[in-house]
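Design job #97: recover the sequence.
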């Protein structure tokens, strides 16, 4: 339980500790020019974020010092994503769904 992750329109993913009296940012990392959505499982090794404008899904490590460790560019903008223990599914604007196993 590293905290709660959010994707920001400014292209950063931010993690914060939501416990009472502990609300503070404990990670903030630049990922893309802008982000539209984020998904993860807890506990899980990665956080996934999409940028519609960049047509890209980004993999960020869910560690004490998170880092972008991968990206996949699609021919159509990604519009939604879902994650389970070993896969991420990405839906694109052209109505396709892609499963990425990790």
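Job complete. Output follows.
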């Amino acid at each position: 339980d590293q905290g709660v992750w959010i994707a920001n329109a400014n292209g950063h993913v931010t993690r914060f500790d939501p416990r009472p009296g502990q609300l503070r940012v404990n990670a903030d990392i630049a990922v893309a020019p802008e982000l539209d959505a984020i998904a993860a499982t807890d506990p899980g090794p990665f956080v996934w974020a999409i940028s519609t404008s960049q047509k890209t899904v980004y993999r960020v490590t869910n560690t004490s010092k998170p880092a972008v460790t991968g990206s996949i560019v699609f021919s159509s903008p990604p519009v939604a994503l879902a994650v389970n223990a070993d896969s991420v599914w990405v839906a694109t604007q052209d109505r396709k769904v892609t499963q990425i196993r990790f």
